[in-house]
Recover the amino acids of this structure.
């Protein structure tokens, strides 16, 4: 194969030549400096509007979700520019290629001034923060962003969730205050409940009996349906005292981190679900159903019990349903799973190329005021784009929505999620109808006080965590589905536990404990 | 004559013939200068767009950080490969990938050939055109819709297949949730979608066969089946072999989007392949270097397979890429 | 073998062929009809399994939604332009590559084959390729869509095989001995004889351009340059594989339901032109098209 060897040598030579010519990316200034320490430019105003006397233009790199139209056409940005004097030059990228483009953007010498709706992972935040590409925000926030600062003071779990182990905040997250937006509720069909003459179930045993009654009276209907297996687990895990922390199956008791996917309580939860599945009380489609299918089931009004965040997905059948109070489990636990208030991390960041970091943080701060600013972000201007209805809820004006090619998503960056925003009960709007609010109130006493978002893992640790998670999660998820359907018998439970431990559960737990100690304790 | 002289004489002959063949070679090259000019343009393209970016492969051995660039990123050697090889699921992923691809070669490869031969044998022009045009359309149906249709048609309650089964007195089967059905469904739907499109190349090849060969065979008393076996098939053997070689060269590259859409927790034991597993890992922590390393691993295996099959083709059938 | 036996053997063969052909047509046709019907049906009814052959809950919404997007017609135009320009470049470069390599008498042939085959396996990746495109100043222009993908090595190899095995060497040798230059040989003799393979290549490349979207996603920023597939994907919320990770902030439910029937109408809208294209290409597959030319 002498010929091939010379071919390969030729290839190597060519590559060497070309890599020299190509901009293979260059080292950024690895100095880390706190922009708050520098004096702001004379143009900048510390309070009030406009934010800068003379208009400035900043570059923004943002993700465009499927629900959104182009950023340059958005009503929100156009209006806010009039108010703030800050104009943006957009590089908004569809989410399909967003990650690739993010890689490319970070490779450039001049970075975009602002990263928006960017879902920058914790791992990337540490890397880019420490390399100096992203500037620390905590100083800026303290000096120029009173709204954000007061929220961070009010919600220590949010502050801890977004602060990296080196003490810096490299990106702002969303702050979703209303519980109604952080819980996936159980909706019980009141009509069917009345028809079978039962009371609202209080324990898991009650629920089992109720679903059986549903099945007997309505053999063609699905007694209980959820979007997928994970949904079924989260709907009831609280009844066995199992919660979600750091976005994983973790309980934190007195600063001790514990992953509960091999515990006896978890086994009981699975057995409970299996019993229901076997007797046809859970829709079998749960395993592989498409979301659209699930929505159509919710809207049919024929399902006895199902899970969803809010009634906005099933307006046609909403009046038949009421939220369920969290059930009491066999050991007396009565808890419920909820999402962290810092729901979308890595949503907003400022780069080292930005010459107006103070103006940028003020630009964001107004949207976190919990009043006019937050309402402006979610709904725009009263009278112009929305109005308050008789319940005091904001509703978009139909004429406005129709004028937009994609509806709200063409006018506001919010739809599609992952935006840096402060959501309050008032701005929650369509996901906080009176029915939703009632359901949320029933749940409130049973959720955890502080729910943490993903932790920051040290650079060399995060890869090990992903490797373990990929293996363990695949095994755990596959097994739980098979336990529930009966493909796997509970006689094999000990084998399951041993396998999970062999793959490395203990090590994973240690990594999480380490991260927790550094960040959340 | 002494051995030394003999050897010297042979040596002289060799160098003489060597320089003679070098002269001949030069002559052959310059004679065909215009062919080389033709090659020039495509070759420039290969150098710029294919070989130029190849330096990017090095990050399979590095810890790529865009702010450091390709050259500035830290060297980690075989770390990414080790992470992959020592994964708990490594063997299952390899097994699933290999088994699916072997079955694909076994079933998916021959069917377009049969279809092309079938089309070729149809005398009625209108029917022939209809057959071609209809079978070629499914190729354009997006993978999302194909999987959506599978879900609909195979639904245990409302799907047409299970309705037929219960009509025949059999129990309904939740096909999409059974690991043993995954491969047949995946490969079957691939065949359905692509047989028409993939038969086009064979149909084109068959159209180049000299009709006189068929006429001569008729005179010799050959039946239609015999004509197919002895004329049509041999005529397209070069095409078949080359496409087979190319297919084998793509062995490890499996259609990721379709599997991702089709798989669910219950079928993982047969449906989880290298690309879907690493996609999930990528969601946990996007790792450009790791993905490149896996891609490189797949490519190396594909390449080795290609070279092997190419050599076999060369020796056995004198058909090869090089 | 008596004549009688031979004929009934052939008759059996004929019947078998038509039976198989009809079976194939049936199993392919049914889902195709389903797709068209679904594109005119109410999404809820589709999901409930109520749609079997004919549309249920007839509605034109799925089509209306697509055509409502003002960018649709522009993107249709763009795709046609990209396809024509792109395919032309494809055919020229691929032929210039495939023909010389089909000549067994070309020194270094195997070397070149190895060089191009190697690229089917090893590629630098999206980022370095993007950087090359960027350095050449092709970003956000039509050139980024037609140059980086100008040659498909797979197609080139297939084309080479055709040149090598379907065009007799004696023919070429004779012309060369007559004093015909290689370029003239290619142009005047080879190409006219290669109508089937050229037709196939036009089809392969044109369809490739028609269906492409990733290049546009990565290299284009300006809306007015977007090709059809991008617009359709945006209308449709593609990336449905990752659907379950979506946060259900209002709006999404309605769009997901709408997407359910739109995914069928999108197929019809996007594929119709290409499906119509095939019959035109087909006439080059007529048997003996090459032999006739040789005789002439």
């Amino acid at each position: 194969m002498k010929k091939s060897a010379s071919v390969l040598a030729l290839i190597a030579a060519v590559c060497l030549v070309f890599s020299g010519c190509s901009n293979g990316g260059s080292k950024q200034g690895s100095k880390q400096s706190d922009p708050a320490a520098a004096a702001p430019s004379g143009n900048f105003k510390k309070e009030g509007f406009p934010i800068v006397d003379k208009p400035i233009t900043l570059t923004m790199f943002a993700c465009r979700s499927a629900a959104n139209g182009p950023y340059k056409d958005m009503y929100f940005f156009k209006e806010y520019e009039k108010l703030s004097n800050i104009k943006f030059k957009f590089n908004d990228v569809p989410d399909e290629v967003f990650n690739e483009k993010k890689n490319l953007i970070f490779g450039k010498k001049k970075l975009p001034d602002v990263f928006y709706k960017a879902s920058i992972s914790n791992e990337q935040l540490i890397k880019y923060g420490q390399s100096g590409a992203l500037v620390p925000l905590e100083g800026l926030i303290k000096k120029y962003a009173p709204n954000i600062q007061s929220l961070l003071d009010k919600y220590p779990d949010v502050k801890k969730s977004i602060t990296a182990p080196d003490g810096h905040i490299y990106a702002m997250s969303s702050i979703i205050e209303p519980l109604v937006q952080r819980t996936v509720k159980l909706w019980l069909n009141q009509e069917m409940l009345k028809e079978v003459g039962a009371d609202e179930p209080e324990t898991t045993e009650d629920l089992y009996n109720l679903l059986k009654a549903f099945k007997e009276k309505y053999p063609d209907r699905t007694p209980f349906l959820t979007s997928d297996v994970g949904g079924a687990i989260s709907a009831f895990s609280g009844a066995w005292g199992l919660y979600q922390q750091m976005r994983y199956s973790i309980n934190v008791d007195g600063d001790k981190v514990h992953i509960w996917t091999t515990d006896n309580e978890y086994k009981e939860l699975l057995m409970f679900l299996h019993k229901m599945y076997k007797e046809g009380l859970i829709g079998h489609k749960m395993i592989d159903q498409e979301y659209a299918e699930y929505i159509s089931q919710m809207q049919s009004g024929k399902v006895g019990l199902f899970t969803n965040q809010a009634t906005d997905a099933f307006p046609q059948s909403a009046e038949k349903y009421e939220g369920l109070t969290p059930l009491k489990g066999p050991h007396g636990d009565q808890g419920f799973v909820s999402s962290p208030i810092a729901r979308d991390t890595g949503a907003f960041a400022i780069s080292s190329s930005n010459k107006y970091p103070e103006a940028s943080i003020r630009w964001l701060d107004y949207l976190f005021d919990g009043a006019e600013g937050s309402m402006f972000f979610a709904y725009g201007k009263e009278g112009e784009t929305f109005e308050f209805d008789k319940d005091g809820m904001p509703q978009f004006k139909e004429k406005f929505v129709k004028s937009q090619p994609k509806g709200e998503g063409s006018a506001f960056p919010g739809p599609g999620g992952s935006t840096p925003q402060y959501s309050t009960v008032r701005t929650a709007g369509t996901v906080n109808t009176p029915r939703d609010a009632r359901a949320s109130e029933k749940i409130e006493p049973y959720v955890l006080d502080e729910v943490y978002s993903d932790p920051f893992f040290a650079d060399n640790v995060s890869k090990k965590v992903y490797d373990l998670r990929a293996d363990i999660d695949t095994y755990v998820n596959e097994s739980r589905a098979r336990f529930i359907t009966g493909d796997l018998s509970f006689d094999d439970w000990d084998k399951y536990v041993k396998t999970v431990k062999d793959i490395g559960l203990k090590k994973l737990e240690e990594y999480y404990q380490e991260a927790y100690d550094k960040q959340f304790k | 004559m002494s051995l030394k002289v003999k050897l010297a004489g042979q040596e002289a002959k060799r160098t003489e013939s060597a320089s003679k063949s070098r002269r001949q070679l030069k002559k052959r090259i310059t004679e065909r200068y215009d062919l080389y000019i033709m090659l020039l343009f495509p070759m420039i393209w290969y150098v710029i767009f294919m070989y130029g970016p190849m330096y990017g492969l090095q990050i399979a051995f590095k810890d790529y950080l865009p702010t450091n660039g390709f050259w500035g990123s830290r060297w980690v050697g075989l770390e990414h490969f080790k992470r992959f090889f020592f994964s708990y699921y490594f063997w299952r992923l390899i097994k699933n990938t290999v088994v699916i691809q072997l079955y694909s070669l076994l079933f998916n490869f021959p069917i377009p050939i049969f279809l092309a031969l079938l089309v070729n044998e149809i005398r009625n022009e209108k029917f022939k055109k209809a057959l071609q045009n209809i079978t070629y359309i499914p190729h354009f149906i997006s993978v999302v819709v194909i999987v959506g249709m599978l879900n609909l048609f195979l639904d245990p309650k409302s799907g047409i297949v299970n309705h037929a089964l219960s009509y025949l007195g059999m129990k309904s089967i939740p096909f999409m949730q059974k690991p043993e059905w995954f491969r047949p469904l995946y490969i079957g739907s691939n065949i359905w979608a692509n047989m028409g499109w993939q038969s086009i190349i064979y149909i084109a090849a068959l159209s180049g066969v000299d009709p006189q060969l068929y006429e001569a065979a008729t005179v010799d008393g050959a039946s239609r089946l015999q004509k197919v076996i002895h004329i049509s098939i041999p005529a397209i053997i070069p095409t078949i072999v080359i496409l087979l070689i190319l297919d084998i060269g793509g062995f490890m590259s499996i259609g990721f989007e379709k599997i991702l859409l089709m798989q669910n927790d219950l079928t993982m034991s047969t449906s989880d392949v290298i690309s879907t597993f690493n996609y999930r890992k990528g969601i946990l922590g996007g790792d450009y270097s790791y993905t490149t390393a896996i891609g490189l691993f797949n490519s190396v295996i594909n390449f080795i397979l290609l070279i092997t099959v190419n050599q076999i083709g060369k020796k056995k059938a004198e058909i090869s890429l090089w | 073998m008596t004549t009688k036996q031979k004929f009934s053997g052939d008759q059996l063969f004929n019947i078998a062929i038509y039976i198989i052909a009809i079976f194939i047509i049936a199993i392919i046709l049914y889902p195709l009809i389903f797709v068209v019907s679904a594109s005119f049906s109410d999404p809820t009814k589709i999901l409930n399994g109520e749609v079997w052959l004919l549309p249920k809950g007839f509605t034109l919404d799925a089509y209306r939604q697509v055509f409502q997007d003002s960018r649709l017609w522009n993107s249709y135009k763009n795709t046609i332009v990209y396809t024509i320009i792109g395919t032309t470049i494809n055919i020229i470069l691929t032929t210039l590559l495939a023909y010389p390599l089909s000549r067994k008498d070309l020194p270094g042939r195997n070397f070149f084959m190895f060089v191009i085959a190697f690229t089917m396996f090893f590629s630098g990746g999206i980022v370095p390729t993007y950087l090359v495109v960027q350095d050449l100043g092709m970003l956000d222009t039509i050139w980024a869509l037609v140059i980086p993908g100008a040659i498909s090595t797979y197609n080139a190899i297939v084309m080479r095989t055709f040149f090598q095995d379907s065009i007799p060497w004696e023919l070429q040798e004779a012309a060369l001995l007559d004093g015909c230059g290689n370029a003239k040989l290619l142009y005047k003799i080879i190409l006219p004889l290669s109508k089937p393979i050229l037709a196939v290549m036009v089809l392969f490349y044109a369809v490739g351009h028609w269906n492409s979207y990733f290049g546009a996603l990565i290299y284009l920023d300006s809306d007015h340059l977007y090709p059809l597939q991008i617009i359709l994907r945006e209308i449709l919320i593609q990336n449905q594989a990752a659907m379950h990770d979506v946060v259900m902030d209002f709006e999404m439910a309605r769009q997901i339901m709408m997407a359910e029937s739109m995914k069928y109408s999108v197929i019809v809208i996007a594929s119709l032109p290409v499906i119509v294209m095939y019959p035109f290409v087909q006439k080059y597959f007529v048997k003996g098209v090459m032999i006739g030319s040789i005789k002439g």
Q: What stands out?
A: The mean pLDDT of chain C is 84.
